[in-house]
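Anyone up for a design puzzle?
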C-alpha cells in the first residue's frame, strides 16, 4: 500500500476536466458502494481510501493499486459536497458503434439529443439499466458519461449500459433508410397520449428520443420521429394549471415503464 502524494492529488483533480480524462483514457468514481459496483467490470488504475475505509475496500483491490489518504486529502480530490472516503480511477471502455448497426432491430434503444446536465444523464443511465436497456445513443453535445457526477448518479449502472456518442441526425438517417426501419419515438407537444392504445406501435423494438432539458428535441432530429408521443399532465382539481414540463430523467422513466408493459388477454398491463 502506498501513501498518497501531492502529485497524485493534482492528477485526480485534473480528471475533473474532460480533456484530461480523454487524454488519459480514465474516469473517476467516488464512494465505497459506487467503487465496489464498478470494480468487477472496469479495470482500476488506482484506488484511494482513508484509514477507516481501507479494511472494507482492500479485499477487492490488488495491493499495488491501493493508496491511503487522509480525510483532508480525500476532500481535496473529491467533487462531492460530502466526500465518502473512497476514490478510484478506472480505465474507460472504448466505444464500439458497430453494434448499433444490428442492434436496433432487436430491442429498444434510447437516444439522447443534447441532454447536458450530468445528474440527469446519470439518472437516465440508471433508469435505463432498471428497464433492461443496454445501449444509449448520445448526440455529441450530450454530457460526458465519464463525468464524475454522471458516474456517481449511475450507482454502478455504467457497467451494464453502453453509451455511444455520434452525430445523431446522421445515425437516424442511416437506420430509417433501412428497408426494415424501426419506429422512432419522440416526446413532442403534438404527440399521441402515451397511454392511448395505439401510441406505441411496437413495445419490443424501436428508438426512443429524449431531448434537451430546456429546448426539447432539436429540429434536425425531430424530422426523423415517426411516432410522436406525449406524457399528459393531469390538471389540478382547482384548475390552477400544471407544470410546463417534466424533468427529462423523470420523463424517461415514465416512458420506459410504459414501453416495458405487456398486455395480457384481459387487456390489463403487467410488467
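Challenge accepted. My sequence:
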Amino acid at each position: 500500500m502506498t501513501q498518497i502524494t501531492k502529485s497524485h492529488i493534482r492528477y485526480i483533480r485534473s480528471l475533473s476536466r474532460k480533456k484530461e480524462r480523454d487524454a488519459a483514457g480514465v474516469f473517476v468514481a467516488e464512494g465505497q458502494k459506487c467503487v465496489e459496483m464498478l470494480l468487477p467490470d472496469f479495470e482500476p488504475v488506482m484506488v484511494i481510501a482513508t484509514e477507516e475505509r481501507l479494511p472494507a475496500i482492500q479485499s477487492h483491490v490488488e495491493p499495488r493499486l491501493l493508496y491511503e489518504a487522509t480525510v483532508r486529502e480525500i476532500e481535496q480530490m473529491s467533487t462531492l459536497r460530502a466526500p465518502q472516503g473512497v476514490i478510484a480511477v478506472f480505465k474507460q471502455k472504448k466505444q464500439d458503434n458497430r453494434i448499433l448497426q444490428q442492434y436496433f432491430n432487436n430491442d429498444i434503444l434510447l437516444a439522447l439529443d443534447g441532454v447536458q446536465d450530468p445528474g440527469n444523464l446519470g439518472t437516465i443511465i440508471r433508469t435505463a439499466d432498471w428497464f433492461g436497456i443496454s445501449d444509449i445513443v448520445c448526440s455529441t453535445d450530450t454530457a460526458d458519461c465519464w463525468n464524475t457526477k454522471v458516474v456517481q448518479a449511475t450507482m454502478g449502472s455504467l457497467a451494464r449500459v453502453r453509451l455511444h456518442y455520434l452525430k445523431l441526425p446522421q445515425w437516424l438517417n442511416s437506420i430509417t433508410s433501412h428497408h426494415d426501419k424501426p419506429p422512432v419515438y419522440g416526446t413532442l407537444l403534438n404527440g399521441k397520449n402515451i397511454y392511448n392504445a395505439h401510441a406505441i406501435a411496437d413495445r419490443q423494438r424501436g428508438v426512443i428520443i429524449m431531448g434537451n432539458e430546456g429546448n426539447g428535441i432539436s429540429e434536425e432530429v425531430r424530422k426523423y420521429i415517426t411516432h410522436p408521443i406525449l406524457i399528459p399532465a393531469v390538471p389540478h382539481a382547482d384548475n390552477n394549471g400544471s407544470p410546463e414540463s417534466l424533468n427529462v430523467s423523470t420523463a424517461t422513466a415514465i416512458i420506459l415503464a410504459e414501453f416495458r408493459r405487456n398486455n395480457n388477454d384481459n387487456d390489463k398491463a403487467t410488467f
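A detail worth pointing out: Residues 263-271 have pLDDT under 50 and may be disordered.
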